[in-house]
Amino acid sequence: MRTSDFWYDLPQERIAQTPTEPRDHSRLLCMDRATGRCTHRHFYEIADLLRPGDLLVMNDSRVIPARLLGEKEGSGGAMEFLLLEQKGKDEWETLVRPGRKAKPGARFVFGSGLLKAEIKEVLPDGNRIARFEYDGDFFHVLDLVGQMPLPHYITEELKDKERYQTVYARENGSAAAPTAGLHFTKELLETLEGKGIGTAYVTLHVGLGTFRPVKAEEITDHHMHTERYFIPEETARKINDTRAAGGRVVAVGTTSCRTLESAFAAYGEIRACSGVTDIFIYPGFQFKVLDGLVTNFHLPESTLIMLVSAFAGYEHTMEAYRLAVEKKYRFYSLGDAMFII
Questions:
Q1: What is the pLDDT along the chain (341 residues), one digit of tens a residue?
Q2: 153 found inside a domain
């Protein structure tokens, strides 16, 4: 298939700039993937669409305020760092602008000296390995001096950092939110539990590669970015028990989906494990774990809309997106959601 097959027209005003309040009052487009039939609900109604014995698998990665604005030590000059992946206790792979100032040995200051960095290495793709210096806990300092790295299409300031976090986020490491989970409230999770619908957690730290456009004409020529994932023992047990009992495993978000399908591809089963995945899911992919998917509406020609098309069917997906535009759903990270079952 060609990348252009996944294009759709989206008016600029349909790109959500602010989150819906309360979280679970966002709209929910529900699709029967066998028929493509779509109905329109609100997210808090998802409890009525699931059955006792079903299991929601969620990504508990927490977004770090990975955007750092500072200056070169001594000579000044504005600099921007974007933390991409932790490589060691105090070392991170970073995207640095302007790059010409960030040669090995160059030092930079953030937050009036609360955080300092030295460039240790320039990688082949132009990213840098930086070693950070600080007093106390790194992530506490980062909360003080860093900013949330919102996607480029969100132009309004996010007044509350926690609105770009899921209510169950706990493992620091993502540069972007696993946005399908943003719609859950603690009260909704309690409602699900009361109805006998289970929850389980995986961790996949979302990198900025999730926003990288597919530039290859043929989708099979695209090379995926890599992301680290972790499946704990309790989650593996819950998934296997759910499947054995005839319940449905529903991934909350493409990151949870990629984690589960990557683990099954690696081991032929779901078990406690950790690893790095560059799995690319597009139409023709045979799902081994998922029975359902909760996801937001994704950018045209992105790997994410390709993943959704693999699960729901290409024709069904593109028609659902056309319908979502027509019905004035809100799109992308802070927008509305789909439930595909």
A1: 999 999 999 999 999 999 999 999 999 999 999 999 999 999 999 999 999 999 999 999 999 999 999 999 988 889 999 998 889 889 999 999 998 889 999 999 999 999 999 999 999 989 999 999 999 999 999 999 999 888 889 988 888 889 999 999 999 999 889 999 999 999 999 999 999 999 999 999 998 766 677 899 999 999 898 899 999 999 999 999 999 999 999 999 999 999 999 999 999 999 999 999 999 999 999 999 999 999 999 999 999 999 999 999 999 999 999 999 999 999 999 999 999 99
A2: no
The answer on 222 and 173 residing in a single domain is yes
Q: Give residue for tokens 């020529």.
A: 221
Domain boundary among 87, 119, 145: 145
Q: Half-sphere exposure (CA, 13 Å, Cβ side) for 44?
A: 12
Contact residues for 5 (Cβ-Cβ < 8 A; gap 6+) = 314
Q: Which domain holds residue 103?
A: 67-145
Number of domains in the chain: 2
Contacts of 131 (CB under 8 A, 6+ apart): 90, 91, 117, 118, 120
